[in-house]
């Protein structure tokens, strides 16, 4: 689904643009994915595992724009993506198509500006409008800031996967499973 662009003001007064990424943003989006993946261990891939080509990303963004039940909300500082939140159906099957999986990432430099909360609220509103009745996500058990944010936005923990993530140093981190009724 394509969103109309609008201006967002951060807590520090900086103005960003919230919009759907376009196919022409493909290279910038891939750079953003590699950057966020390298800033913390809280994402599911390392930077070098972001191996999609610009052409693949263009096609992906084109598909996202055309699908009314898939939304990517992206914050841009000029032409650079600095935060993104997306959701899509867990399954197209009738018994499960009321559920949407959500993912979110913000460049560290922009943390603490209220952007995560704003993106979560925007995503929930768009998901509800798209006919979903439940949002779901997974969060690293040691990501206390994200967990607290999700809880404050109405997400509830419903499960835990022990050792879901294995880092390169050999440490294992549980995944907390959360959902929010819409």
Q: Largest sheet, described in full?
A: 8 strands, mixed
Q: Mean of residue pLDDT?
A: 96
Strand order of the largest sheet: 1-2-3-4-5-6-8-7
Helix content: 25-40%
How much of the sequence lies in strands comes to 25-35%
Structural features, described:
The protein is globular, with a radius of gyration of 16 Å. It is α+β, with helices and mostly antiparallel strands. It is built from 4 helices and 8 strands; from the N terminus they run ββααβββαβαββ.
Short description:
The protein has 182 residues and is α+β, with helices and mostly antiparallel strands.
Describe how the helices and strands are arranged.
Layout (H helix, E strand, L loop, with lengths): L5 E4 L5 E5 L6 H14 L14 H13 L4 E7 L2 E10 L9 E8 L8 H15 L4 E7 L3 H9 L3 E11 L5 E10 L1
Parallel strand pairs: 5-6
Antiparallel strand pairs: 1-2, 2-3, 3-4, 4-5, 6-8, 7-8
Helix pairs in contact: 1-2
